[in-house]
Structure formats: C-alpha cells, structure tokens
Amino acid sequence: MKKFTRRQFIQTSTAAGVGVLGAPAILNAANKGDKLRVAFIGTGGINRRHITDTLDHGDICGAYCDVDSSRYTNIHEGIDGLEKSGNSWMAKQWKAAKPFQDYREMFDKAANSFDAVMIGTPDHSHYPATVMALEHGKHVFTQKPLTHTVWEARQLAEACDRYKLATQMGNHGHANEGNRQIAAYVQGGHLGDIKEIHCFTNRPVWPQGFVKPSGGDAVPATLDWQNWLDCAADRPFLGDRGLDAGRAKKRGGSYLPFNWRGWLDFGGGALADMACHTMDSIFMSLDPGFPTHVEALNVDTLTDSAFPKGSTLRWTFGPTANRPGFDVYWYDGTDNAYTDKNGKPRRHERLEEIAQGETLANSGNIYIGTKNTLLVTGDYGDSSRIIPSESHRALAMELKEKTGDHRPARVYEPSIGHHTEFREAAIGNKPYDYPGSNFKYAGPFTETIQLGNVCLRHPGKKLAWDGPNLRFTNSNKANKLITKEYRKGWDFKLSKA
User: Fold this and answer.
1) What share of the chain is helix, strand, coil (3-state, %, to 5)?
2) Which of 43-52, 138-147, 366-375 has the lowest mean pLDDT?
3) What is the CA 353 to chain-centroid distance, rounded?
4) Fold observed for domain 6-174+419-442
5) Which of 45, 107, 373, 478 is most enclosed, with most CB atoms within 10 A?
C-alpha cells in the first residue's frame, strides 16, 4: 500500500468526507461474513472492555496500537475470564494483527486490515485519532468525553451525517434501563415542568489543583513519549512525584497511567470525566439544545496546569415551544464532599436542602419539577425515585390504577447494548446513526460539558453562549478557549462538506 503523509491524505480527501485510503466500511457477508474487523488505539484502561466485547462477539482484531508496548504485551491483566498466557498476549490471541506505537503509522500501513476503530486514549488525543479514522472510512467508537474542546465536539457532530459511518461515544450508561426510566418520569409529565437539575460526583479521585513540578524524569523504555503527547506541546516526562498528597504515587505517576485527567493539557477534570455519564439523562429526556449561559459559581484552586480541587457550575437553558427554561448545576470535588468541623461527612448545602433528608450517595442527580422531585443515585441513572417517599408511593399507586404498572410508561425501547448498537451499524445491519450516542447526539452533549470547563477559568462571570455561531458574546478571552493549538504533525482536519 502506498504510504501517504498526513498532509497528503488531508489535501486529497474527497469532498464527500471519505479519505482516499478507504471507502465507507460496510461489511459484505459474501466476502467477510458477519465478523467485524477492529483496530484498537490504546490497549489498556477502558479499551480492555472493548477487547472483551470484541471477543464476546467473535470479532477480529486487525491491528492495535499503544504508545506503551508493555500495555499490549500484558493485556491479559484485568480482563475477566482470560487466562494468563505470558507476553505478547494480543499477538497470541489475534496472530495476524499488527502492533504499532503510532496510530498514524497504523493507518498508513495496516488500514486494509480493519473496518472499525476503538479509541481509548487520553482526552487530548481523541479528536486527532477520530479524524484519522473517519478520513480513512472507518467506523469509530471514541471514549468519553468525545473531545477535549468545544470546537472539536462541534466538528464531529457536523461530520456524522457527512461521513455516514457508524459512530458511538463510550458513555455506556446511555444504553442502561435507568436512563430510560428517568426519561419516562420527565417526558411523562410526572415531575411537572423541570425547574432545576443538580448533578454531583465524587470525582476527582486523581490529583487536581496542583502546581506543575519542575524538571523532568527518564522516559520508561517501553513508552513512546512523543506519541503519547500527540497534538499537545512538547514537555518533559514526569514520573512518580510531586502532585497531591500521595495520589500521584498511588495512581502510578504524574501523567501515567491515569493522572493525566487532572491536567488542563491532557484531560477534562472531574467534569469531562463523569458528566458524560451523570448528565446523560438530561440530554436523553429533555433534548435541551444550546445553553444560553454558563457560569462557574465557585472554583477551588484552579492553577495554570491543573483543573480545580472542586467546583460548582451552572448552565442555563432557555425555553422552547415544548417546555419552559431550566438550570443545570454541577458539583464536584470539595464542593460536593467535605467533612464539617464535627467530623461529619457533608454535601453541598444546596444538595442537602433539596434532598429533603434523604441520604445522598457519592454521585447522582436531583431533578426538581413543579410537581415532584426525582432523586437519582449513581452515575448511570440506575436508581431513581420520587422524594419524599410518600410522594413516590402515591404516584406509584396512581400509575398502577391507570396502567396496571407502577412505573411510568417507557419512551425509549430497550437497548441491545452500547457496543452491540455500534457493531450492528458497522456491519450494515442498522443505519449508520443507529447507535444511541452517535456523534450527532454525543457532539452537542460534549460541547455543553466542555463549555463548563471554559467557564472554570472565568469564575463569577456569567458567560453568554451563542450556540449557532460557536462563540461567547461577552468574553473574547473565553472565546480563545473554545479551541486549542495543535502540534505540527497532529493537526489533522476533517474534509469539508
């Protein structure tokens, strides 16, 4: 196969949005059967789940890439039901699959060996890897948060219909029954008009609010540090030191394998990590559209390098023809969980007030409506109930009398599974936009979340968002944070419509 440089393939991509290196990868049972040929970008962490899903479906790995070669030689660790088989596990499981440490090289040399790509990398590299997959005509499953910036999210949302490839963001709770139950409460009118929604999380569980340590450390022999940096500016590698009260040591290092989440240049902090789960039911049930304003009500120790130790944020969504406007609040870190002077664990005082005496878990949602209040425990919507309990029992009895079922009537059909939705679209059994968290859904959702990370840097200022024009109307400084600089060699572009 002819090798193309990044610039050449970008310049010669077709206007239809399919890269010259591959047509849309719809499988044909006559020549490929019903197996999906998958490539993995990242073989540790969340991609272990994708590897397990691929095995469960009997599908094939055509190529795989990890910047740290030790991750794919010991990939058996942490995968349930797989016996330890020594080094080069991926090579033993899929003998024809080719290993790489640079996904650009993987697309150049092995693109004909796979039809779909599973991307499980740090947030900052989601967009460049996803662009390469789309430009090569590959179906793509990208982990949450879909992108690192507001601009990137808008680009991928607009690309979904243009490329007509199967896409999915990896917020697996989107397929859960719990989020469907919340939608039934909301869309069935059982809460009345929604006035406020409060979302809270126990994240971060990694260092945040730190100052970048000086100097650098030796790069591990198995790690390609420049490829890990991807589109981010060059910097020294930092090992196990100096971030936050031993958390870096517990997690393994300043950046790897997990602590990158707290860095402005690489992650999205507590918000981008968990809001794609915890706020998902809001987008499923209310289809809120663009917020009109976003504001950081409190920020605890934001630095030039790291996301804060805690924050309280608010998004305002205007009224539509079908509903009045409402506000969404977010609480993380020290703004959600702290210990009072008597040693008692506490939540934000507003959360405790609206919980009406109910015990609050580490994470969840509270929907406040004109009729009822709904408490959701956990990040995936899997436990929701009207509070106080007397109101829950009264509604359940009313529904039982009317419909024979104490639960609200469903508004979404059951999911066949988050991975399976993507697979069905990728092999051509379902339309390309069949997956529930396809980029048309996940793009605007991620965009809204990343607006919250922009307002963190402007605490106390109510930023006015002009969604159609992708800009703030009252802050040129905030507009500079909608996108970012990309290092040469990683500054890929999607084909124009």
Assistant:
1) 35, 20, 50
2) 43-52
3) 30
4) Rossmann fold (3.40.50)
5) 107
- 117 and 39 Cβ atoms separated by less than 8 Å: yes
Cβ distance 260 to 235 under 8 Å?
no
Q: Which of 482, 450, 456, 455 is nearest to 144 (CA)?
A: 450
Same CATH fold, 178-205+269-413 and 6-174+419-442?
no
By residue count, the chain amounts to 497
Among 38-52, 175-189, 353-367, the range scoring the smallest mean pLDDT is: 38-52
- The per-residue DSSP string of 48-87 comes to HHHHHHHHHTT-EEEEEE-SBHHHHHTTTTT-TT-----S
178-205+269-413 maps to CATH 1.10.8: no
Any idea of the CA torsion for 398, 402, 408, 410, to the nearest 10 degrees? 180
Kindly provide the residue ranges of all beta strands, DSSP E only, lying in 334-480, ordered along the sequence: 338-339, 345-346, 364-369, 373-377, 384-387, 463-466, 471-472
- pLDDT exceeds cutoff 90 at 240: no
Joined together, the tokens standing for residue 100 give 């790489």
How far apart are the two ends of the chain, measured CA to CA in Å? 27
The pLDDT score that the predictor gives to residue 15 is 32
Pairing of β 364-369 and β 345-346: unpaired
Average of per-residue pLDDT across 179-202: 97
Residue predicted with more confidence, 68 or 20: 68
Note whether 381 and 375 are within 8 A (CB). Answer: no
How far, CA to CA in Å, does 224 sit from each of 48, 119, 227, 487? 20, 18, 6, 16
Report whether 134 contacts 24 (CB < 8 A). no
Contact between 395 and 372 under an 8 Å Cβ cutoff? The reply is yes
Would you list the domain boundaries of the chain? 6-174+419-442, 178-205+269-413
Q: Which of 302, 94, 120, 276 minimizes the C-alpha distance to 201?
A: 276
- Give pTM, 2 decimals: 0.90
**CA separation for the pair 474, 464 (Å, rounded):** 6
